[in-house]
Please model this.
Amino acid sequence: MHTQHARFARGKGLRNTLYELGETHERRSMLAERHVTNFCSEFKIVMTDTPLNTEEVTASWHKGAGDGVDLLITAARCNDLVVMGRFTRPNGLPSDLLELMLIECGRPILIAGPETPRSLTGTVMVCWKDTREPALAVTAAMPILAKADHVIILAVDEGAGSAIDSATGVAQQLTWHRIRANVEVVAADKCPTAELLLSAAMSCGANLLVMGGYSKGRLRETIFGGCTDSILRHADLPVLIIH
Model:
């Protein structure tokens, strides 16, 4: 994956560099596999490549060759949920991998918080707006909402007057799934929307934030704007998001 165009190059220095890159790749792969194996051993998670007749968590390890980002996106599309951490230091993958995955994979992504949560199903706050992305997020989060102790549908009133009606409609629909949700509306002010959402999440003691991801365009290289970008980079609690 590090030497895509190197076949046309020549020279001893280049050969040595390519050899070192190959060695680094193999070492990282070995360390990653060891990390996964040790983690599963510590927490008694069975590693298997086929489904087992059990409700317990299982795991598997796969190694692929090719472009790392494309491999991850392809694997994500084959699974129900993607769990990722935020970029904190160079790791051989693009610093905007989270954004690329969110745009391309079509699956919900659970972004881990800075600390291990005691629960994801205590209080769940849904960031609601009457648009496509939050509707997709609610659908993706249904298994979690069904197990939550407390669900809050939060909408930001931007002056259109329909925020509370739309949020109330979502809460009423959830009752058909035996999910009771409280509706809360906060007024938009001079603070960025992301600050309003995170402040509300802190006030209600939310264990998980559910939201749709908005971008400025449809290109792969697009930069997520405003609220989404701030939540992706700075939220101090787990976030379930889909684009």
